[in-house]
């Protein structure tokens, strides 16, 4: 007699918790948030993909530079600084403002080059007509060399960059008030008395902490008015082209920086003892 072959099938009476055991762990557990990159004490996050989107976020300063597609983590920043009007740097602006409105957050402050301020306001008006949103915000035009205070101890200054269209970068300064030398050693009551009588008892000092270029040719480095950019603790600068199949000339034609330029600039500043002993392998060997 042949042995009977038995087939088992799932019962419709299986308990839900038994089914749940086969689900991947990442569905049941929340993904742990990755720690942010921290440089010189400043957490940094964001992304920059050539031609698609750039958004660099400094959460401890409550600001973002450029907003090509409005990543979710940019929404919580109260300030956005726009370097220029190319879509991969400004395209996410309406969504940024709309999302903050949807979440009942306070209207953000947006800083743009003065020459595009009116056009950006028109952009918001078009979106208001399309979906009926208020899109409440504060729009500030900033010219090269002008400053805006974003916190009692922070100010931001626009500096000149060199792209295919009008563009500018931004330097964030830490601002400190120090008691003047002649008033040091006075009692607190004496200092309060001087202050209440209108005497300026402090000197204001500022130090460049962070600089952001946006899209630019490397020429900004040579601009005498940009000395603070190179003194900043952190310089976030573009480097769209890194491969030898794209020439420096091509990069400059489109208003961008090539990695080779940065290497050549660094080489030119080597001290004499090293100048003849350091070689760049930009073309292989």
TrEMBL record:
Entry-linked CDD domains: RNaseZ_MBL-fold
A Pfam family it matches: Lactamase_B_2
Domain Metallo-beta-lactamase, chain residue ranges per copy: 76-273
Record region (Disordered): 1-24
Domain of life: Eukaryota
Protein name: Metallo-beta-lactamase domain-containing protein
Species of origin: Linum tenue
Organism ancestry: Eukaryota, Viridiplantae, Streptophyta, Embryophyta, Tracheophyta
């Amino acid at each position: 007699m042949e042995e009977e072959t038995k087939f088992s099938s799932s019962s419709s009476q299986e308990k839900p918790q038994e089914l749940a055991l086969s689900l991947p762990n990442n569905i049941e557990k929340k993904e742990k948030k990755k720690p942010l990159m921290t440089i010189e004490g400043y957490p940094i996050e964001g992304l920059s993909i050539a031609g698609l989107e750039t958004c660099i976020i400094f959460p401890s300063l409550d600001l973002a530079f450029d907003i090509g597609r409005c990543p979710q983590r940019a929404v919580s920043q109260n300030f956005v600084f726009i370097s220029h009007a190319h879509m991969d740097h400004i395209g996410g602006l309406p969504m940024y403002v709309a999302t903050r409105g949807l979440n009942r957050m306070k209207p953000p402050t947006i800083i743009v080059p003065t020459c595009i301020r009116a056009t950006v306001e028109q952009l918001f008006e078009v979106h208001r007509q399309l979906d009926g949103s208020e899109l409440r915000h504060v729009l500030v035009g900033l010219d090269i060399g002008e400053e805006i205070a974003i916190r009692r101890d922070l100010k931001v200054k626009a500096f000149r960059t060199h792209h295919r269209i009008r563009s500018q970068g931004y330097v964030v300064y830490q601002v400190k008030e120090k008691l003047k030398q002649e008033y040091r050693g006075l009692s607190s009551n004496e200092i309060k008395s001087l202050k209440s009588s209108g005497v300026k008892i402090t000197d204001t000092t500022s130090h460049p902490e962070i600089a952001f270029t946006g899209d630019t040719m490397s020429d900004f480095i040579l601009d005498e008015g940009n000395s603070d950019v190179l003194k900043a603790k952190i310089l976030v600068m573009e480097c769209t082209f890194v491969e030898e199949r794209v020439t420096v000339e091509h990069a400059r034609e489109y208003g961008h920086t090539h990695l080779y330029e940065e290497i050549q600039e660094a080489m030119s500043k080597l001290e004499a003892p090293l100048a003849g002993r350091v070689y760049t392998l930009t073309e292989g060997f």
